[in-house]
Amino acid sequence: MTTSPSVILHSRPTVGSDELQALTSVIGSGQLSQGPRVEEFEQGMAALLGVAGGVAVSSGTAALEVALKALGVTPGDEVILPSYVCAAPWLAVVRVGAQPKIVDIEPDSYAIDPAAVKKALSARTSAIIVPHLFGLPADLTGLQSLGVPLIEDCAQTLGAIEAGRQVGTVGAVTVCSFYATKLLCTGEGGMVLSHDQSLLERARALREYDEEPALDDRAFNYKMTDLQAALGISQLSRFRSFLERRSEIAAAYRTAFSSTRLGLPVVPSGRSHVFYRFVVRLSRNIGSAASVIARLEQRGVQCRCPVFRPLHRYRDLAGCPVTEEAFAQALSLPIYPSMTDEEVARTIQAVTEELSE
Questions:
Q1: So what's the architecture of 239-356 in CATH?
Q2: Domain 17-236 and domain 239-356 have a common topology
Q3: Which residues are within 8 A (CB) of 51 and not within 5 positions of it... i.e. 6 or more apart?
Q4: Model confidence over 151-185: pLDDT tens digits?
Q5: pLDDT for 22-78, tens place per residue?
Q6: What is the distance between the alpha carbons of residues 24 and 166, in angstroms, rounded to a whole number?
Q7: 56/188 Cα distance (integer angstroms)
Q8: What residues contact residue 223 under an 8 Å CB cut-off, 6+ apart?
Q9: Which residue in 256, 248, 268 sits closest to 338, CA to CA?
Q10: What is the pLDDT of residue 293?
Q11: Please, how many CA atoms are within 13 Å of residue 302, restricted to the half-sphere of its CB?
């Protein structure tokens, strides 16, 4: 076995001359902090989703916290969220003083399980955080039927469809992250979006505190800069082409891995997939995800566990067997618009050779 001369990264930003020109234009304008580019980016994102408006903030985690406060979640309330997710939703719930209630996921989609949510409901439940993971929508139809406000987390699934509806248009409020390797990139940044203008007004009041008629101890400096927004505007103009490239790579992977021992991504009826991640399922006889990651790295392909550590493990909780199985068996392969055909071919070769030994 030989090691490839250069490692194919698991994630990589897709930026180029358009983004450089956008940044140069902002620097030349002298308006670097929150200004007209932020407003333009908010309008562009609202138009993409078809909602009333957006409020740009400094990160996806900040967007979650602002969304919870704007929705009226207060200390003593309960917020339901899945275990199989990054730490941000849990941190946001705790920061507003509410009680997180962690539930299990669906076995095939990795998304929050409506049946588990239903069992966790109580008189104190004020919201459900719904992360759409890896590019695939959660079961919004099932969750919506529970009658609790939904906070859609579209950090990984912008542009996907569930039951004929675009994700981000169903819940009471939607949040996005624009981290460097997300579907849309501003380096760091996030946004709160909604059909509800009054909720958006509350979110804007929470984003900043300067020149306000009264002090609000919940407000903070969560502003996005015009430099970040300029990146986002540039990325928005190419967003559909980004999704097309992800779809091309996913199709190549599906064809190549159809005869291997990998469990390929499942797309339930009525849902579409935009492949922020290409997450495969390892059979037990292949070995642990950690061992496969190490072996593929030696072949020059960087893979990752799609969730670093589930929330129930951080909190030493029981009752999430489906999440435990996903944590043991799920593996995320490289997939991003700037990935070259040669890199795709090398990834396919490395994975196929490794799993045939």
A1: Alpha-Beta Complex (3.90)
A2: no
A3: 168, 169, 174, 193, 194, 195
A4: 999 999 999 999 999 999 999 999 999 999 999 99
A5: 999 999 999 889 899 999 999 999 999 999 999 999 999 999 999 999 999 999 999
A6: 33
A7: 11
A8: 33, 34, 38, 56, 57, 58, 207, 208
A9: 248
A10: 95
A11: 10
Q: CA dist 261 to 197, 222, 256, 268, Å?
A: 50, 46, 11, 21
Concatenating the DSSP letter of every residue in 170-186 gives SSSEEEEE-BTTSSS--
Q: What was the pLDDT predicted at 357?
A: 54
Spatial separation of the C-alpha atoms in residues 38 and 47, rounded to whole Å: 14
The token duo for 232 is 């986002």
Closest CA to 84 of 117, 126, 133: 133
Which residues of the chain fall short of a pLDDT of 70? 1-5, 356-357
What pLDDT, on a 0 to 100 scale, did the predictor assign at position 283?
Answer: 86
- Find, among 162, 194, 116, the residue nearest to 268 by Cα: 162
Q: Where are the domains of the chain?
A: 17-236, 239-356
CATH T-level assignment (fold) for domain 17-236: Aspartate Aminotransferase; domain 2 (3.40.640)
Strand partners, 151: 129, 173
* Residue bearing tokens 């890199």: 343
pLDDT computed for residue 5 by the predictor: 59
User: What gap in Å lies between CA 174 and CA 350, rounded to an integer?
Assistant: 38
pLDDT confidence of residue 267: 96
Radius of gyration of the chain (CA): 20
Q: What is the DSSP string of 247-301?
A: HHHHHHHHHHHTTSSPBPPP--TTB----SSEEEE--GGG--HHHHHHHHHHTTB
Concatenated DSSP letters of 12-72: -----HHHHHHHHHHHHHT--SSSHHHHHHHHHHHHHHT-SEEEEES-HHHHHHHHHHHHT
